[in-house]
Amino acid sequence: MTGTDGAERGRFARGAARIAELEGDRPQPRREAYRLLAEVAPDLPRLAVEFAYGDVHSRPGLDAARRELVTIGVLIALGDTERQLVSHLTGGLNAGLTSGELVEAVLQALPYAGFPRTINAMLVVRQVLQDRADPPVPAPPTTEAPPT
Prior knowledge:
The protein has eight helices and no strands. By secondary structure, the protein is mainly α. It has two domains: 59 residues; 74 residues, AhpD-like. Helix 1 packs across helix 3, helix 4 packs across helix 6 and helix 6 packs antiparallel against helix 8. The protein is elongated, with a radius of gyration of 18 Å. One of its GO terms (molecular function) is peroxiredoxin activity. This is 4-carboxymuconolactone decarboxylase.
């Protein structure tokens, strides 16, 4: 990296700071995934930190929690993203989202992503909340009349 070493270091530092903010006091599997990727493709984890977190996730205009909601929706729509969902669900919680908001975000994906992807994502939500020992998500009020 000739001529841009300082800028590249700044991007990486911004990205690493955002990741640390999202991880909170519970390091996520992202760190291990990046370590394993670096064994095969050393530039891939660096590019993810610089671009996804240093350039995009750190932009002004949306706070970290809202960015995590958008990311969660995209990951659900893509499907086959369980590892990434774990990181972004955890990051969303660490950024201030509630367990109820995560459940609603996943439910919001249902008409657009379909039942299989929504069900798979909800199972990931369940596991993340269970691993964190977060309180259970309260059931939404029913619209049906109670039995008499």
